[in-house]
Amino acid sequence: MRLAAPHPLLLALTAGFLNGYAFVFGGEAALVANVPLLWALRAPRAVHSAAFAALLGGVVGFLGGVHIYGILDYGWFLFWGFSLYTASQMVLYALLLRHLWGRTRPLVDVLLPAAVWTLTEWLRTIGPLCMPASYVGCIADVPALRPLLALAPFTGGLGVSFVVALVQSVLFHGLIAGPSHRRATLFAAGVAGIALAFGFIVPPSLGDTPVRVAGVQGGLPNTAYDAARADPAASRDVVRTYATLSEQAYRSGAELVVWPETAVRLPVTEVPALAAMLFPPADAPGVTLIAGLPRRVAEGDERNSALVIAPGGRILDVYDKVRLVPGHEALYTPGVVWRPVETPVGRVGVLICLESVYPEVGRALTLGGAELLAVISNDAGFGRSPIARHMTNRAIVQAVENGRWVLRVGQAGISTLIDPAGRTASTLNLFEHGLVTGTARRRTDLTPYTRFGDWFMGVVAVGLAIALVSVRRRAGRRQPAG
Amino acid sequence: MWRPPRAPSVLLGGALLVWTALRVRAADAELNARPVVDGPFRRWLPPHDDGPFGGHLIDPRSNTLANELTARYGASVLPPLSPTTRGPGAGDPPRLIFPAPGETHLVVGTWGGDLVVFTPGLGVAVVDPDRVPADVPARPLDVPRERVF
Question: Do A117 and A224 reside in the same domain of the chain?
Fold first, then answer.
């Protein structure tokens, strides 16, 4: 028996609300987020009606979830543009499902929502203005769902998102759609269960050579840096904060100390007094600093960089941020290539701020030989909004996809040490100051995802193409008879 | 099998309205929040637009003038606080200005086209120089221009 559905617009809005909620507050909501939208799409209606419902659900839901209100600081245009961009994912999802759903075998019907959602997530990772957001990012910090992350080294985050979307489909077909898809639903539930069990059975390698690491979190608000631009006394306060915390880090026994992005916005490398205060002293051998600093290469050529500093202040290597925040970082010149930096404790892949949300960056750095990853960020501009939490979740995804320890260091927070299983330790929250310390382990082997990239998307695309051809053939056979 | 309530649209609509209102309220509070951050050495208060002469207070703090002068230039620069020259443009910063009886500001320097001014008990503000009366009594301090290091 098919149940009477609430109004489709309300169902779409509910789906938007649940997606927004999952992104911001509770990742477990992702398991049910699209169930209302599936319910709305199941009812027969015109294509434009389905698209409108999904658009409205997307816009209002994601706006209502307000998961992007940190972006308000960057202007209303970006806020609305990003909201519409985000909502377009739900529109595409709705239109593709509307076209393919209910026209082939029951098993295909149950798998389609997962496949289509995976396609839409992948589309968000390509193009110059792309902005990935995914279910794997939502659930990355939910302990009960962490075993699902064990798929990521094989399939990438897309495989995890596929399973989450599959659970939505199972719930819809099992609880709402009626008995016609019972066997297919049981099969899909079994697949999801196996994916979860896989995480318990196959723990990832945690690496070999230990490296003692320390991340320095100043915890300063952006206004401290604003004041520092105008007032030397405020600038001294910022420097003093990082000098003191760094000194603690150098004396903590850490072999690798990491600063956040643009931690000190002064020409530290050009002023010996500053370098002496901030960089590892010559009498602290065995310590290497990766310092997030702005770097002037030439007149009019400034980079957002990570510098590798040896004791005594010698610069060993430099990485310039390649993927800059559009508009906001227009004053910087982008770097040329993603490559790990050479340090005495091994090759470290540095992802600066927004780079950590793009799967291809961590993968490129790991393919380039990175044995550890460091995500350095500022995040003070987002205030106490949940964006920093989601950015941290993206660092967790980078860790599990590439099988690397990740030290995430945010200027305002969140700073934490993440192992290749996605577990975090020694966490400092927003606007706290201090050190994140621990022992990471270097790894040199490559995960299947790192080696082969989005092969899982290829499988999904082939499956969708087959479904599309099948639907067209069936439609063609029906036409002459009609 | 689970069945939805009789009037799911009403229930859903009401719940969504309530939720949206709560989220908008929370978002508004968050956007307009002026968080106080405790650093390792000092407390960073949120900036606001109630600085001296209508300026933007970029670094609110309740320091005294004596402490500020000591912290910035060393104890030896504490002068007898009587004006010797006039006008904020009467010399290079730093200098003290006395726009009203019992009111003293320390002009720390300039930033862009603005003056950077410390007011005892209030903090550091950036001020449009046109807002500062041109004929206020002032006293240059015999100290070098302040540097970060």
Answer: no
